């Protein structure tokens, strides 16, 4: 039993930040030996750990803060050591000396305010206190302060060097990479792992052309992938819409005409089934409904209505409104009967109908009804034409619908494969396709 329990434990992946931190600390100790064991490598290693950040921009920003804080703290620390040295032994380990250090701590903090460097206040105080408290009474304060500054700068420069270093790679900038969401990018718990988020943002910052293709609405999608800096439009609603996440606007939609939707709604009413009609009006998703009879309908409404990207309106579908898709949720038996009824209509060829069981409401199933042209392949072609791109690579969890099959999203497989596809090492620049 213990063996099975250990096997079921999922350990997080070792990320680039850990590797780079280890490398940076090791380099600091190497430089310490090269310098003939001058200085204190502890401060260099500390600076490395503070400055190595998930993204290059944040690493550079932290390095600037660390340098500014070091200079401010070192300057005031050196001045106070000079005062202690001038006073001779009267200041050494006395109550007055610690009172002076406390007062000067306030001076250090106020200096960061005057210089508009408030974000460096903590670093400044750490440097100041490490100089004054640890080296009160030293015979050569200037030498120690210079070594303290040098140690910190070594750590900062090592962090920048390690963070920006990488193997020679060739970026595939002419390829559009498309990923599914559920069971591809998100784990089975519908989460985005920290590794995937950091690495994906790094690839996007390096110029990768990347988008998502999903059956979710923009509201549900953006909740799930919050923190990813998407730059291109995403394919949503199973290919019924192309959505710009930066402008919060719908660029393209495949819709059911009002007449088509009216025929479907009348047929649903005959079977005593309710509906949610998803309509795009002025870049806003409006969801019309008439009644909420079963627990699944009520649960969905209560869960989703508070999101600002969804607007629920209790009324029949207004005349002449086109519908992106109709959604029905009821018992699996009722949905099966309604599906068969729709497929028996002469005009069923105008529709794309999807049915699947609900994970959240046992015994219930969904039915979603779209325009027959609403599919991810069509929308991807439209997006590639818009971007003037010819090549694409699709990552997914369904073999016949992808170029690269992702079988275990919980282990960051999608982002790891994406990294190898986008920036292969130049010595092995050929790309393989697996599906």
Explain what this protein looks like in three dimensions.
Helix 4 runs antiparallel to helix 7. The protein is of the alpha/beta class. It starts with a helix and ends in a 13-residue tail after the last helix. The strands form three sheets. It has a six-stranded mixed beta sheet. It contains 14 helices and 13 strands.
Secondary structure: elements and pairs:
Layout: H1 2-8, H2 16-34, H3 41-51, H4 56-86, H5 95-114, H6 121-132, H7 141-164, E1 175-179, H8 194-205, E2 209-212, H9 218-224, E3 234-236, E4 241-244, E5 249-253, H10 258-270, E6 276-281, E7 284-289, H11 295-304, E8 310-314, E9 325-331, H12 332-343, E10 351-357, E11 364-371, H13 376-387, E12 391-396, E13 404-405, H14 413-422
Parallel strand pairs: 1-2, 1-12, 7-8, 12-13
Antiparallel strand pairs: 3-4, 4-5, 6-7, 6-9, 9-11, 10-11
Helix pairs in contact: 2-3, 2-7, 3-7, 4-5, 4-6, 4-7, 5-6, 8-14
